[in-house]
Amino acid sequence: MPPVLSIVGKSESGKTTLLEKLIPVLKRRGLRIGIVKHAHHGFDMDRKGKDSHRHRQAGADAVMIASPGQIAMIKDVPSESLNDLVPFFSDMDLLISEGFKRDRAPKIEIFRPERHRQPACLDDENLMAMICDTPMAVGVPQFSTSDVEAIADFIIDRFLPGR
Which positions fall inside the Molybdopterin-guanine dinucleotide biosynthesis protein B (MobB) domain (predicted)? Predict the structure, then answer.
């Protein structure tokens, strides 16, 4: 199973923007990257009237849609815990979750003091690093939002030593 890292932060802190910059850097370094996005308010990929929706309505526990070069699956899982999701990414080198700040996975938090008063995970023992453009005394390594290469180096050194 791949190692798991959570990119966390409060709403509108820049998690997705950071991942849009970080994923290509990790890919250029030869890594296969899986992403799990936490949607605490639920989501619906299955549109009413489509065959996959009809299959789910009929009681299927899992439905996969396949087309040339890609698949999508909707499957009942016991919980939204990362532990239950990691097996779906067994062919990846690294699994990065966006969100899951209450999960016990190692975390890198992105914090924007102009948007929020305090970081979300300062007291979390699984906090490994902070990304913030304002210097902070946080007790973990800190990176600027623009220093994506250094963030990638840190991730590889911590999760994939020897690569």
Answer: 4-133
